[in-house]
């Protein structure tokens, strides 16, 4: 696949890194010669210095032969114009744009991005995606990572096994015997930096980061089996009143009337503006690193401190200071892929990575076959993929125990007619079933092949 990426920042670099590693033909454009030099020195991609919305620059990058244009510069308007130029002058089949300003995304203007106006096939709003992930974490405070599949019927959850986890040293096959009615399947384990797909004879040990797939109504129970039965957060302090912080506060007001939310914003004009928009949230003007402000926000009584400023270092330090003041839980926004391990060493285990969320969203449209959803895990070490099984798929028509499934992948759940089915040995996948699979990064291409239309079908 030939892809042109506009924007060589953290998101653009992350997308280029993933696509180049999978042997795609990638060109990347940015106005910064320094960023282009850094990308081309690191990755097997072609770099072009210039404006991503200028036709001559797009032509030099090879857009006339491209399968996809991905516009993720820092400016919404540049991203939108790049897609318009890609459509009007180069007839690019798929155009993806990052749009951050919420006014563009208001339901009243939803026709803006139609083919007759601004022909953008996929609009990605990182603030909404990150905000939704934060809200899921607040409802499931024991989880490290959560993402929904199959229209919300299935949830993939990451959970850390503490020393007192009740199921340590228990072979996974015994979990079925101990909890016969539990609709959950362990699909991946990260043990001391090594990610693997566990076998039924494997047992979990303290410190493991475990990913399981469960029915939406079984997530809370499954978390309790792993020793996490923390109640949903009701007292929340948010550090940072940008798009993400504002979105989380507004949605908490709407979805959870019992929640008590306090938001800290350093910019006076922004603090005043969001205070007028929010009806129940207490907005405090100041720094999330100011001990007096945190004490005024009563962070010591909070269930969770959410640090979502634009500065990773501020987020980490404000979480640590909040913990010192007595906050029960911490959740940090971390853009730099090098920070999560550092933050974990400081005791901050819960974080969200906007780059990973955006890359996951784009991968859904890069993957071949009937792919309905993709979520990248563990900094790209693996992916959870939701795909529709076609009649020609090698998965269809045989009991799972008879399938020649390769190492490095595991089926987590099957959706059929609105019903969630666990992948037991006697289960047979039917055509048009939606299958949720975890695969290690080097096995993703083989998973794609399982869900592509075979020429023999025609």
Can you give a write-up of this model?
This protein is α/β, with parallel strands linked by helices and 458 residues long. α2 links the parallel β2 and β3. The longest helix has 15 residues, at 76-90. Helix content is 31%, strand content 25%. The strands form 4 sheets. A 6-stranded parallel beta sheet has the order 3-2-1-4-5-6, sandwiched between helices. Residues 454-458 have low confidence and may be disordered.
What features would you highlight for this structure?
six-stranded parallel sheet, disordered C terminus, 31% helix, 458 residues, alpha/beta, 22 strands
Summed up, what is this model?
The protein has helices at 10-21, 33-42, 55-60, 76-90, 126-139, 172-178, 219-225, 243-255, 268-277, 291-296, 312-325, 339-345, 354-366, 444-450; strands at residues 2-6, 25-30, 46-49, 68-71, 94-98, 122-124, 145-149, 154-160, 184-191, 194-196, 209-215, 235-239, 260-265, 282-285, 304-307, 329-333, 351-352, 371-377, 382-388, 409-416, 419-421, 434-440. The chain is an alpha/beta fold.
Count of alpha/pi helices: 14
Taking the sheet with the most strands, its summary is: 6 strands, parallel
Low-pLDDT residue intervals, each spanning 5 or more residues: 454-458
Going across the major beta sheet, what is the strand order?
Answer: 3-2-1-4-5-6
Which range best describes the helical content: under 10%, 10-25%, 25-40%, 40-55%, 55-70% or over 70%?
25-40%
Shape: globular
Q: Assess the beta-strand content as a share of residues.
A: 25-35%
| Mean pLDDT score | 88
Estimated structural class: alpha/beta
SS elements, strand count: 22
Beginning-to-end CA distance, first to last residue:
23 Å
What is the rounded Rg? 23 Å
């Amino acid at each position: 696949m030939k892809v042109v990426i506009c924007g060589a920042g953290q998101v653009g670099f992350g997308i280029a890194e993933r696509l180049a590693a999978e042997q795609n033909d990638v060109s990347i454009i940015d106005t910064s010669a320094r960023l282009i030099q850094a990308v081309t020195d690191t990755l097997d991609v072609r770099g072009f210095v210039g404006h991503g919305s200028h036709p001559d620059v797009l032509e030099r990058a090879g857009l006339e032969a491209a399968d996809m244009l991905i516009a993720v510069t820092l400016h919404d308007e540049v991203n939108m114009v790049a897609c318009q130029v890609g459509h009007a002058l180069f007839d690019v089949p798929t155009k993806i744009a990052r749009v951050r300003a919420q006014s563009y995304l208001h339901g009243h203007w939803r026709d803006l991005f139609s083919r007759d106006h601004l022909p953008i096939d996929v609009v990605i709003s990182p603030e909404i995606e990150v905000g939704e992930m934060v809200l899921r974490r607040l409802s499931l405070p024991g989880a490290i990572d959560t993402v929904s599949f199959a229209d919300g019927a299935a949830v993939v959850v990451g959970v850390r096994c503490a020393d007192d986890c009740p199921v340590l040293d228990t072979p996974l096959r015994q979990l079925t015997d101990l909890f016969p009615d539990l609709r959950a399947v362990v699909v991946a384990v990260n043990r001391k930096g090594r990610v693997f797909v566990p076998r039924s004879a494997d047992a979990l040990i303290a410190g493991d980061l475990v990913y399981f797939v469960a029915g939406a109504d079984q997530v809370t129970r499954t978390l309790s089996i792993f020793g996490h039965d923390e109640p949903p957060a009701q007292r929340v302090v948010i550090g940072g009143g940008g798009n993400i912080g504002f979105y989380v506060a507004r949605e908490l007001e709407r979805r959870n009337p019992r929640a008590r939310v306090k938001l800290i914003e350093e910019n006076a004009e922004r603090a005043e503006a969001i205070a007028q928009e929010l009806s129940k949230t207490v907005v405090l003007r100041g720094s999330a690193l100011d001990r007096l402000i945190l004490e005024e926000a009563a962070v010591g009584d909070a269930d969770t401190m959410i640090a979502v400023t634009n500065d990773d270092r501020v987020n980490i330090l404000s979480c640590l200071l909040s913990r010192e003041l007595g906050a029960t839980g911490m959740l940090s926004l971390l853009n730099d892929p090098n920070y999560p391990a550092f933050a974990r060493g400081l005791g901050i285990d819960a974080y969200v990575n906007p780059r990973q969320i955006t890359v996951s969203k784009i991968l859904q449209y890069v993957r071949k076959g009937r792919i309905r959803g993709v979520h990248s895990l563990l900094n790209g070490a693996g992916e959870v993929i939701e795909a529709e099984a076609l009649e020609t798929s090698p998965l269809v028509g045989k009991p799972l125990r008879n399938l020649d499934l390769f190492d490095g992948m595991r089926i987590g759940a099957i959706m059929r007619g609105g019903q969630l089915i666990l992948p037991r040995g006697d289960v047979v996948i039917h055509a048009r079933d939606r299958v949720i699979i975890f695969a290690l990064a080097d096995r993703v291409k083989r998973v794609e092949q399982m869900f592509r239309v075979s020429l023999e079908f025609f």
